[in-house]
Write a structure and sequence with these properties.
Helices cover 56% and strands 8% of the residues. The protein has 263 residues and is α+β, with helices and mostly antiparallel strands. It has a 5-stranded antiparallel β-sheet. The chain has a two-stranded parallel ribbon with strand order 1-2. α1 packs antiparallel against α2 and α8 packs antiparallel against α9. The model is unreliable at 1-5 (pLDDT under 50).
Length: 263
């Protein structure tokens, strides 16, 4: 395991296995492992609690006005692909983020105010859905309420050759949110220059029930290239052991190939 704080990785996996995944805690553990940092998850959660107590009105309007109006949280137009924009602890410190990380912040503050909001995994731009008024969404990058029609226009602007589907505005669960955050980071670090940053991201992706085979193979190849086929084999064995069928068989074949490197 590459992390200097190895507790983040097993804790992230444990949280994913819960029936109700604690989104903020999982996101903070993700941040700690990815940054290889001595991050206090407890302090991060206390910061969210503290912010929620300052919200002047227990409504989604109140939360949005407080975060994006009074406190000045905003989308990072200048350095959109800076990995710091994906880490909840850094978003809290810098008050900058990308749509999905700002959505996580908003959803978690709202939840602490007993206001229910859902993440919406629209391709190309993550949104928030107000539970009580499902025709109203939030663009967290701008800190603005938008209609479904405006969301569709935003999709068409960002994806000019793609067809908009109504399901794109359906809520997604917390596991899907965390997976998307990690795949954003995987994309950022897959430039061939950020191997040390990419490996922790892939290790976290291995915590999901059935990671994609391309993710598994990429992690194995990177660790093998670093002379760590044994570490790769152990991580892949853990994934294979909690799966069945052809998927598990393919992983076991890859594990066998990795162990052979040591003979």
């Amino acid at each position: 395991m590459t992390s200097s704080q190895p507790s983040y990785l097993p804790r992230f996996r444990e949280l994913l296995c819960r029936e109700n995944v604690p989104l903020a805690e999982a996101a903070l553990n993700m941040s700690g492992h990815c940054q290889q940092a001595n991050l206090s998850v407890g302090i991060g959660l206390e910061r969210l609690d503290s912010l929620s107590r300052e919200v002047p009105e227990a409504s989604l309007d109140g939360v949005v006005q407080f975060l994006f109006g009074e406190l000045g949280f905003a989308g990072d137009d200048d350095n959109y692909f800076d990995s710091q924009n994906s880490y909840l602890d850094r978003v809290l410190e810098r008050r900058l983020g990308i749509p999905i990380s700002l959505a996580v912040l908003t959803i978690e503050i709202a939840s602490r105010c007993d206001v229910l909001a859902h993440g919406v995994g629209m391709p190309g731009h993550f949104l928030i859905l107000e539970a009580e008024r499902p025709n109203r969404l939030i663009d967290p990058f701008r800190g603005e309420f938008i209609s479904r029609e405006e969301a569709e226009r935003l999709f068409s602007y960002l994806n000019p050759t793609a067809e908009f589907l109504p399901d794109y505005l359906s809520p997604v669960d917390d596991v899907a949110i965390l997976n998307r955050m990690l795949n954003n980071l995987r994309s950022i670090h897959s430039d061939g220059k950020s191997v040390s940053n990419l490996i922790p991201v892939l290790e976290l992706l291995m915590c999901f029930d059935q990671p994609r085979l391309d993710e598994v193979r990429q992690l194995a190849a990177l660790l093998d290239a670093q002379g760590k086929p044994d570490i790769a084999a152990r991580q892949l064995e853990e994934v294979a052991d909690r799966n069945k069928g052809e998927y598990a068989q393919q992983l076991h074949q890859l594990v066998t190939q990795l162990w052979r490197r040591l003979n």
